[in-house]
Amino acid sequence: MEATGGDGKAPGGPRVLVVGGGIAGLGAAQRLCGHPAFPHLRVLDARPVPGRSRIRSERGFGGVVEVGAHWIHGPSRGNPVFQLAAEYGLLGEKALSEENQLVETGGHVGLPCVSYASSGVRVSLQLVAEMATLFYGLIDQSREFLQAAETPAPSVGQYLKEAIRRHVAGWTEDEETRKLKLAVLSAFFNLECCVSGTHSLDLVALAPFGEYTVLPGLDCTFAEGYQGLTNCMVASLPEDTLVFEKPVKTIHWNGAFQEAAFPGETFPVSVECEDGDRFPAHHVIVTVPLGFLKEHLDTFFDPPLPAEKAEAIRKVGFGTNNKIFLEFEEPFWEPDCQLIQLVWEDTSPLEDPTLTLRDAWFRKLIDFVVLPAFGSVHVLCGFIAGLESEFMETLSDEEVLLCLTQVLRRVTGNPRLPAPKSVLRSRWHSAPYTRGSYSYVAVGSTGDDLDLLAQPLPADGTDAQLQVLFAGEATHRTFYSTTHGALLSGWREADRLLGLWAPQAQQPRPRL
Ligand SMILES: Cc1cc2nc3c(=O)[nH]c(=O)nc-3n(C[C@H](O)[C@H](O)[C@H](O)COP(=O)(O)OP(=O)(O)OC[C@H]3O[C@@H](n4cnc5c(N)ncnc54)[C@H](O)[C@@H]3O)c2cc1C
């Protein structure tokens, strides 16, 4: 079938380039590859091998560890990542069970099995549960301002702190218990910073906070690694579709480009790579992370993006959340323990930290998740967000290992606790093609800005249409920061092209 449509100047079908081979780019490519209107499709990625995107599983400690995405959030029928993973046969029985899919977590993280305080004593789990109820009750309340004409505070952080101040005024316990309660709340603030991928909840806008949508289902993992999913997607594409080690430097658009390889043809877009290669195209789907876009905004598009779109890229938040894996010869935790919480007794969400990053970066580290043992190897996975996380990236493995050994000895009250055997960590802020972990709606921005990010160019529709399209997690208004948001955004942009070139076509299911 000869493709017709678009500007009508694409004999043999339009040339489509996808920039970025993460789950958004792969999702778009899968959808387009399944349709005869798109015989010329390429995915360009900066990295040397597939699966170095934010879904990244690495062999380590005799098993597989997730350097990027960890869970399918809300694994149930409405979640396309869950559906795709299930179709590829990558999920276990428990994750697939009806019962698991029906669990409503409200997006809240489960309670720790043990909570260690910095003085080396254990915090009562009853007190932790009480503070969790207070904290998550307030988080739920902060989702209720979506339709409000005015909000009581600009940010989630300020709203929570004001509400906590009111609660504290009614606390009748002794000074020590009140301080401990605030310290536990501080740990929950840090945890929520990891969830939102932000340095501080003071940066997260209150009004649009409720727009992020939580799907039902108890978060689940991939026994063989999340990357099994993107590997299956890659394997379903024709062999020469993916081009690795092709960092794109500049996307020239709104032009009339001619290439010797295509005599007589004119292309509205030409994609220039770092190595000087140029790829002409009728359509380009840009799926690079928002962190990369922020850093290269001035040079990545020629002509530059319309002012409103560039402003949206600047305004939407993109922060860092990293993981630190520690390997132990022997577990120091109970056999059924899944989550270890750390509480710094002299902290309070109502007071700004005064210590320097070097002296106190590790206090931002939240819980340690106990990974299922790989044979005789025992691994904890710690999470840390914000500027402290970015500082951690500048340290050596030895420094991180030494520091966390001291922390664990201190909180367990065991000065002889054996040091972890090894450490492995992510460094998402230093990663040149990511520059952070995921997006959030920052103070000064709204869901409209995410929609603006998703708007294709040219905006006025007078020239060749849909020259540059935008996908990636940051372009999904209600599922930003997730793998399912990213996948849906890729499908959305593929459908946009299908609507232009094959409006009569049935939307195909992805080829599995
Ligand atoms: C530590 C961490 C934990 C997470 N945990 C979860 C979780 O548990 N559950 C969940 O749902 N989500 C989680 N996420 C978020 C999730 O991983 C992302 O939302 C999702 O993978 C983003 O997919 P994407 O395709 O939009 O972007 P990416 O996966 O980042 O893909 C973009 C691609 O663009 C390429 N690229 C960048 N610049 C260029 C260039 N100039 N030229 C060519 N290629 C370029 C990159 O190499 C990359 O492959 C986590 C992320 C991180 C970092």
TrEMBL record:
- Domain Amine oxidase, first and last residues per copy: 23-498
Gene Ontology CC: one annotated term: cytoplasm
A Pfam family annotated for this UniProt entry: Amino_oxidase
Swiss-Prot/TrEMBL GO biological process terms: positive regulation of spermidine biosynthetic process; putrescine biosynthetic process; putrescine catabolic process; spermidine catabolic process; spermine catabolic process
The subcellular location is: Cytoplasm
Which SUPFAM superfamilies would you find in this protein's record? FAD-linked reductases, C-terminal domain, FAD/NAD(P)-binding domain
The protein's GO terms of the molecular function aspect are: polyamine oxidase activity
- State the needed cofactors, names only: FAD
By its UniProt entry, which InterPro entries does this protein fall under? Amino_oxidase, FAD/NAD-bd_sf, Flavin_monoamine_oxidase
Keywords from UniProt, A to Z, are: Cytoplasm, FAD, Flavoprotein, Oxidoreductase
Similarity section: Belongs to the flavin monoamine oxidase family.
Instruction: Note the PANTHER family from the entry.
Output: FLAVIN MONOAMINE OXIDASE, PEROXISOMAL N(1)-ACETYL-SPERMINE_SPERMIDINE OXIDASE
Q: What is this protein called?
A: Polyamine oxidase
- Organism source for this protein? Aotus nancymaae
